[in-house]
Amino acid sequence: MQLLKFKPTEYRLMDVKTGRVFDDTGWILADPQAKDPSLVRAVYASREFNPRADLRGLYRYADWMPVKRILKGSAAPVTYKSKGLAKYLGLNNLYITFSGWNPRLGAKMKTCSFKETEAYSVCARMDKKEKRTLVVQSAGNTARAFAQVCSDNDIPVVICIPEDNQHDLWFHRRLNRCVKLVAVPHGCDYYDAIRLGEKLASDPRYFLEGGAKNIARRDGMGTTLLSCVEKTGRIPDAYFQAVGSGTGAIAAWENAERLAADGRFGENKMRIYVSQNKPFTLLYDSWKACSRQLAEKPAEAGRRDSEVILAKVLSNRKPPYGIAGGLYDVLVKSCGDVFLASNDDIVYWLLQFRNLEGYDLLPAACVAVSSLAQAVKDGVVSKDECIMLNCTGGGMLSSMGRGYFLKEPDLVLSPDLDAEEVIKKVSALF
């Protein structure tokens, strides 16, 4: 019924660096007339934030998502005012936006991760008649989300992932054959998976999802802030999230700008605080050096650090940091900062959060909780400020109780293979 009634969202694209506004003529990831690298941003026909009562799940926010259709099975982030953690930290207005599995809260993301917000938005941006095969590169949670969404909605996809992270590919039922999983061997990392996907997408039968450059990915992730503002009626003073690429924080800032332009939710004075799992500290090192350029990190050191951290989804060696509209710009404009959390911090807050809030978080979300605690200790936030804590995944323990199985890779390929060989081997899977 919803599929018949839904009208594609109206929007145009804007080059963040130049301000040029132009039409989206397809799967555009950058301004074709741009001289310098820049993210593009969606400019929606609907300038007011009005969640849609006629649509369910994530698509309640469809007016600010660049979607052409409605896919089945989506769930929206859930925001509630914290009691346990807030009391423990001495905060009066702490709001937790949770993306995961906790039916008691109304959170029903089957893959337990806010990466579902990306997948349902990106896949709904695709034309139903698209003949090419989507290529997604992931460190773990994104792979699980896209695999589930594409399987449920019969969308062909090739997902590239490090073999070391294949434990993240768990599902409650077997996947549709339209989903193919290609891994890079043990010892490789997310950046190697990115390289493999780029080689595959050099063939016209495939196309890259696009990562942070894809407006649908960012605006899907940005629904976390929309959930919070729908609950609180205002733009938060401070926003906390753990990041690998920083795309979720960029998305939150972009929606804060839209909300400020609406005029009903206050000015955008939201400070963005992001955090990483040390020793993988690429964004932290770059920011603390007061540099738009990413800090230098040898490939082997990056792989080694990504093996050590518990929150492996936070190990992106190619984040959208210095590009116009990227994380550097967001941190500068928001007067934000970057925090660090150790593996020991993750374990501590995993246990504390469960005791205080009653459910479990994924490791990356524990990094965000740790950083909030550090910010309170350092006086970075005050007790009466409106604070949003973006808990990007959790509920896996209770979800696993429903039974699950692990998806084995359909292929394991070296990222050093030439493109022709990669294309040949992957195409043989279909």
Give structural notes:
There is one protein chain. Helix content is about 35%, strand content about 15%. It has 15 helices and 18 strands. The protein has a domain at about 80-110 and about 215-400: Rossmann fold, CATH 3.40.50.1100. Strands 4-5-16-13-14-15 form a six-stranded mixed beta sheet. The model has no long low-confidence stretch (mean pLDDT about 95). α3 (about 115-125) packs antiparallel against α6 (about 215-220). β1 (about 10-15) and β2 (about 20) form a beta hairpin. The protein has about 425 residues and is an alpha/beta fold. The longest helix is centred in the middle third of the chain and has 16 residues, at about 245-260.
Secondary structure blueprint with pairings:
Layout: H1 2-5, E1 11-15, E2 21-22, E3 40-44, E4 78-81, H2 84-89, E5 94-98, E6 101-102, E7 107-108, H3 115-125, E8 133-137, H4 141-152, E9 157-162, E10 170-171, E11 179-184, H5 190-200, E12 206-208, H6 215-221, H7 223-232, E13 238-242, H8 247-262, E14 271-277, H9 282-288, H10 299-308, H11 327-334, E15 337-341, H12 343-357, H13 363-378, E16 387-391, H14 396-400, E17 405-406, E18 411-412, H15 419-427
Parallel strand pairs: 5-16, 8-9, 8-12, 9-11, 11-18, 13-14, 13-16, 14-15
Antiparallel strand pairs: 1-2, 1-3, 4-5, 6-7, 10-17
Helix pairs in contact: 3-4, 3-6, 6-8, 7-8, 12-13
